[in-house]
Amino acid sequence: IGHANPAPKKQAIKNEDCLMRHIEPSTTKDDNGKQVSLHVDEAKFKGSIHSMFNCTDCHTEISGAPHDPASTKPQCATCHADEQTKYDHGLHAKAIKAGDGKAAQCQDCHGSVHELLAASDPASKVNRHNHPNTRGSCHDNKATMQSAGLSTAPYSSYEDSVHGKAVNGGSQTAAVCTDCHGEHDILTARDSASPIFKFNV
After folding, report:
1. What is the secondary structure of 92-155 as a DSSP string?
2. What's the pTM?
């Protein structure tokens, strides 16, 4: 009596298979009538801290290349649950839930998931020296801040402060935004749990 052959193991999709399609700048998908780029810069991806993973580690529903339908957007919380929990308690997440589509999300501070650099990398958006410029991309943008009913004055004040001048002068130890405001669970100054609440300063 013959034995049944075991089912062949499913071949994992290699990153090279995905990149063959996604390195094309013209690769897009339709998202509610808007064309969204699916382009991945191969060199930047290979320099990213996420390059240690297979594409399908995050894009879990993809089982072949090419694939249809398009992949859903992976959630950072799958691997970064603690950071997501903190973010969910902060003012940016609350603003998004209230309908503010411009409030900061993970990629706004950290950069594209396909190009993500370690915080220790001098080119990282969250490298200590780059924190003020990263925050300034929103907090020094009058249109963005006005649409949220806020002012750019706090950012301008920081830039003119001893801390801002020291950071711009190359200091690696002067206070940056996250030293006072926190990182993922940023709260308004009116919140008694905030590190910048008047009795906590």
Report:
1. HHHHHHTT-TTS--HHHHH--TTS---TTSTTSTTSGGGHHHHHHHHHT-HHHHHHTT--SHHH
2. 0.81
